[in-house]
Write a sequence for this structure.
């Protein structure tokens, strides 16, 4: 009798070892998926370390959580977040290369500039691929982007997480279109995503989300011919949105203001937007649980600022000097007479 | 002794430093800064603006630092070129016809049907032998790339079955595009003035029955909404849209234009074309209405009528008109027009 139990136990253990891994993997997948949504995402959102969050958490968790697509339904909501971060990681590489293009153009090193441009395009392509995945996961989780009506964004845990995920997914989808254009459209992301994202942004409360939904809609109005309804004023809307963001200590909408100005080659407005990002980032009202979003806004504005500095002076924005621009110095001799003091 | 050596050394360093500085100062002064105004409906984040960054790099190698500026309104870019605020502008051929008639006539109604034909045309335009024709007054077209075939979009695909079906139907026509309004009139359609910003919504909301656009517009402007379940797109090419770099010639060295045209053709034609054909591939097969046989002949005849009318009005460059006829008849010698006297004479 004792032997029977012994053999039964050995048999069960063997069965588990040989064929029962799925029994463990599936619940592990569900647990990790929920853990990521409940803990890892909020932890990352509150982080102040952009590099660690995008290139650490984003890259690693995208692969780990993506692998669970093999054993459970694709964890789209989780992957939407992790791939958004992973795309920011590759985008920062692309941006570095874009800046080197400008530096080498400034210095007349054309061969080096060409090489930098190719590197930038390679990273843009990787970024576009990741962002296209974000778009697909956003649709998988919340339905057709910009389709009829709005998705149900009520979270089963009673949190605002799904609203934020939808906002992030929508914004990243538009960025994907732009990344693909930078990569000579080699990924083939459909361009109608821009117009659809503009409509989808209106499923979110503009006040609750720091003016970002309306800022995104206005950018789409500026970028897609004929998209703005009659009487719409994109710049007035961007202005209102940036002001809301600034009041709430969230620099995303001011950053979108600067980005829109860059798209229109409106350097004066671009500088105003960058200054607002710097001001908002340094304000006391920053929502600490969303610190990483301010870091994202700061980093994007810093890239725009770096482009201005690089093209003019051959170097990036000086350390902690976001909001200053080449030629700003008030140390010129014209208004100052040293003799008065001598 | 030691002191003399130090002095010698200091002098040598000073000379070296001066010569290095002198070289650097020379290099800086050798570079000339010019303004490059780029029309792109999306702006600085758009495909045209981004693709032209390769040109900016090449221009730097030729000694010109181009400061780029995006324009989402082509008319503003064209008027800034006229006003001297742009040294180079990137415009569409439909617009450059007002500056350099020969080059701008490339985009003529029904001028070409295939990208191979367009490649031949641009190769001719970019060759040194055509240099004379690429200049007109103060302007010179210094590079041409394909921006795609223009197709006719119909909310009801039956309108495309026969040209007579188009009669009386409303068609959105860009107000500055004389050839399109002429075409609409010849077809008996009612042209309705539109702009790049308005024609998409007009087609989608049913204000017009027909619109013409390159494949780019299908997704970007969501034209599938106007096509719905009944619409269609004729695969007959209304015209080839081209992107043209047009410069104020006196702002550049004498050999710049030809150097630039050759470089653009050698380095930008294929990459731009692959982007263009990619957009065409995105249009689902179900929307295409294939125009062939007798229908094709009727379409061609209507376009010939339009071109002959515009020849008489001296709207197109006669030289370009005859050149494109030669290319058409070279790729399809059986075309009825080839033995006709129109557009500069029979070609076979």
């Amino acid at each position: 009798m004792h032997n029977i139990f012994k053999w039964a136990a050995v048999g069960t253990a063997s069965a588990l070892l040989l064929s029962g891994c799925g029994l463990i993997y599936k619940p592990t997948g569900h647990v990790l998926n929920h853990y990521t949504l409940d803990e890892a995402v909020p932890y990352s959102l509150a982080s102040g370390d952009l590099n660690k969050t995008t290139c650490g958490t984003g890259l690693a968790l995208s692969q780990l959580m993506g692998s669970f697509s093999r054993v459970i339904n694709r964890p789209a909501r989780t992957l939407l977040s992790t791939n958004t971060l992973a795309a920011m990681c590759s985008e920062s590489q692309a941006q570095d290369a874009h800046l080197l293009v400008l530096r080498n153009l400034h210095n007349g090193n054309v061969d080096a500039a060409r090489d930098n441009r190719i590197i930038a395009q390679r990273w843009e392509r990787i970024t576009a691929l990741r962002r296209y995945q974000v778009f697909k996961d956003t649709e998988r989780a919340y339905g057709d982007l910009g389709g009829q009506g709005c998705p149900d964004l009520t979270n089963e845990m009673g949190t605002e997480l799904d609203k934020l995920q939808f906002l992030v997914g929508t914004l990243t989808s538009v960025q994907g279109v732009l990344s693909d254009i930078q990569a000579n459209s080699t990924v083939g992301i459909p361009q109608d995503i821009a117009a659809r994202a503009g409509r989808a942004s209106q499923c979110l409360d503009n006040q609750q989300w720091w003016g970002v939904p309306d800022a995104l809609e206005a950018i789409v109005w500026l970028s897609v011919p004929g998209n703005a309804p009659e009487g719409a004023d994109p710049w007035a809307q961007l202005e209102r949105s940036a002001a809301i963001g600034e009041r709430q200590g969230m620099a995303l909408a001011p950053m979108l203001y600067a980005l829109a100005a860059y798209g229109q080659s409106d350097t004066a407005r671009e500088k105003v937007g960058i200054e607002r990002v710097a001001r908002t980032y340094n304000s006391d009202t920053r929502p600490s649980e969303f610190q990483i979003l301010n870091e994202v806004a700061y980093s994007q504005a810093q890239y725009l600022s770096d482009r201005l500095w690089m093209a003019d002076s051959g170097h990036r924005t000086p350390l902690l000097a976001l909001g200053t621009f080449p030629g700003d110095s008030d140390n010129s001799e014209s208004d100052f007479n040293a003799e008065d003091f001598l | 002794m030691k002191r003399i050596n130090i002095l010698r050394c200091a002098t040598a360093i000073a000379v070296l430093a001066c010569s290095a500085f002198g070289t650097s100062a020379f290099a800086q002064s050798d570079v000339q800064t010019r303004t490059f105004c780029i029309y792109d409906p999306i702006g600085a984040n758009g495909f045209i603006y981004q693709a032209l960054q390769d040109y900016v790099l090449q221009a730097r190698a030729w000694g010109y630092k181009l400061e780029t500026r995006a324009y989402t309104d082509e008319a503003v870019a064209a008027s800034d070129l006229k006003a001297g605020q742009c040294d180079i502008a990137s415009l569409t051929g439909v617009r450059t016809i007002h500056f350099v008639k020969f080059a701008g006539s490339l985009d003529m109604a029904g001028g070409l049907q295939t990208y191979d034909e367009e490649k031949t045309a641009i190769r001719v335009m970019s060759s040194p032998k055509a240099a004379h024709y690429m200049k007109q007054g103060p302007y010179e077209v210094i590079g041409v790339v394909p921006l795609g075939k223009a197709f006719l979009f119909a909310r009801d695909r039956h309108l495309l079955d026969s040209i007579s079906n188009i009669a009386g139907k409303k068609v959105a026509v860009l107000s500055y595009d004389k050839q399109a309004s002429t075409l609409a009139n010849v077809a008996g359609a009612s042209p309705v003035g539109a702009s790049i910003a308005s024609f998409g919504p007009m087609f989608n909301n049913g204000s017009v029955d027909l619109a013409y656009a390159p494949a780019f517009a299908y997704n970007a402007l969501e034209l599938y909404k106007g096509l719905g379940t009944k619409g269609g797109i004729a695969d007959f090419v209304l015209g080839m849209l081209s992107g043209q770099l047009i410069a104020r010639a006196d702002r550049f060295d004498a050999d710049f234009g030809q150097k630039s045209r050759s470089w653009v053709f050698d380095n930008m034609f294929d990459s731009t074309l692959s982007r263009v054909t990619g957009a065409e591939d995105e249009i689902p097969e179900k929307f295409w209405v294939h125009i062939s046989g007798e229908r094709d002949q009727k379409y061609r005849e209507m376009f010939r009528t339009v071109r002959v009318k515009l020849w008489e009005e001296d709207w197109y460059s006669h030289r370009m008109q005859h050149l494109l006829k030669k290319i058409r008849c070279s790729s399809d010698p059986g075309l009825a027009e080839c033995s006709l006297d129109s557009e500069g004479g029979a070609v076979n």
Notes: The CA atoms of residues 37 and 78 of chain A lie 6 Å apart. The longest helix of chain A spans residues 110-142. Chain A touches chain B through 28 residues (CB under 8 Å).
